[in-house]
């Protein structure tokens, strides 16, 4: 999962309350079932010492988010001031309640909708509707081409006028170039990811041909509808979700294959186990954190939760005083997000030592936590 999407959670005021639960709406008594689940969540939050005002805010968040269609999970994360995240999950999840100094992110990594920034272009030879989706924020604008007309007038060839076809074709090319310029500006300004393009085949082809290679390489053509007659938003959403899921699974697959290839090499850019992963995090060298079955393992941190180690002695060797003992499945993912690393949840294809591994930006010299 993209670190940028989760980074705002690290800026909260401790303690954090993290809850995950099933939020399916595929039965007639779904609302009653949700109320029963909330009673259990409320009780557990209270038992773990969550502030009453925070629990009330979480209850409102649970009630206010529109019900999903069919089976779903839910994630709600709050800090001492209120709710920071309130989202549906891809599938139902076991109930988890944590009140701790750090947010619990692993279920979000595994089951959350990973929605990277992307650009949707609804184009024809006259103009385009451009919509940037970026981590919950939406920016929409219209590009109206200045080149008109783009269609040859009916009957013009028999009216004794000069053939308008060359002028019409040039107008269409001019409009496409205008769209391409604006698309490129949006990509360069906002570091958007995929560019989903919908429209008739020739318009999609012409637009892609006008884009610089760095932008054209991001284009994903969606064969839905037409700009004149409108597009089915649900169909577009389904196509985009399918593509993003495919990319997510491909990223996980690539991470596991790269780990398997690198972990046993000298000067490898892959490490496993609590000690080596903590060392890599402290050096800011982690590119992708791979989370497996960490269980209830703990690590120690300094007072500011900025240095993490497998034990007090290792932490002291960084010049830091041990101040907190926290769960590794909370500290390592938040540490990865803090250094702008991606976080993925592994499956049975690999079983790293201590349930955790990391792909590195560069090899890390042996440090206090190294084996």
TrEMBL record:
It comes from Mycolicibacillus parakoreensis. Pfam families: baeRF_family2 (PF18844). InterPro entries: Bact_RF_family2 (IPR040701). This is Peptide chain release factor 1. It comes from the Bacteria.
């Amino acid at each position: 999962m993209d670190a940028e999407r989760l980074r705002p959670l690290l800026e909260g005021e401790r303690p954090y309350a993290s809850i995950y639960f099933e939020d399916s709406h595929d039965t007639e008594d779904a609302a009653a079932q949700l109320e029963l689940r909330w009673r259990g969540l409320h009780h557990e939050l209270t038992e773990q010492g969550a502030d009453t005002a925070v629990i009330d805010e979480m209850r409102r968040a649970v009630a206010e988010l529109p019900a999903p269609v069919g089976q779903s999970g839910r994630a709600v994360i709050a800090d001492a001031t209120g709710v920071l995240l309130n989202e549906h999950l891809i599938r139902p999840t076991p109930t988890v309640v944590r009140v701790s100094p750090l947010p619990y992110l692993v279920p979000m990594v595994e089951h959350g909708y990973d929605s990277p920034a992307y650009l949707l272009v609804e184009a024809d030879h006259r103009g385009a509707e451009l919509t940037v989706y970026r981590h919950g924020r939406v920016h929409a604008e219209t590009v109206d081409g200045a080149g008109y007309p783009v269609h040859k007038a009916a009957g013009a060839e028999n009216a004794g006028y000069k053939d308008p076809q060359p002028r019409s074709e040039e107008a269409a090319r001019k409009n496409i170039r205008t769209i391409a310029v604006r698309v490129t500006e949006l990509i360069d300004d906002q570091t958007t990811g995929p560019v989903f393009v919908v429209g008739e085949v020739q318009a999609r082809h012409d637009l892609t041909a006008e884009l610089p290679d760095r932008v054209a390489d991001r284009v994903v053509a969606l064969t839905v509808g037409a700009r004149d007659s409108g597009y089915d938003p649900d169909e577009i959403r389904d196509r985009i979700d399918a593509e993003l899921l495919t990319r997510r699974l491909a990223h996980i697959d690539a991470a596991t294959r790269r780990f398997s290839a690198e972990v046993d090499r000298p000067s490898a850019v892959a490490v496993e186990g609590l000690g080596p992963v903590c060392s890599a995090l402290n050096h800011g060298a982690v590119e992708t954190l791979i989370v497996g079955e960490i269980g209830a393992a703990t690590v120690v941190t300094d007072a500011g939760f900025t240095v993490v180690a497998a034990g007090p002695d290792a932490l002291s060797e960084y010049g830091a005083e041990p101040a907190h003992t926290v769960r590794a499945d909370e500290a390592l993912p938040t540490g990865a997000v803090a250094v702008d690393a991606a976080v993925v949840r592994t499956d049975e294809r690999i079983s790293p030592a201590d349930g955790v591994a990391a792909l590195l930006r560069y090899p890390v010299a042996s440090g206090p936590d190294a084996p």
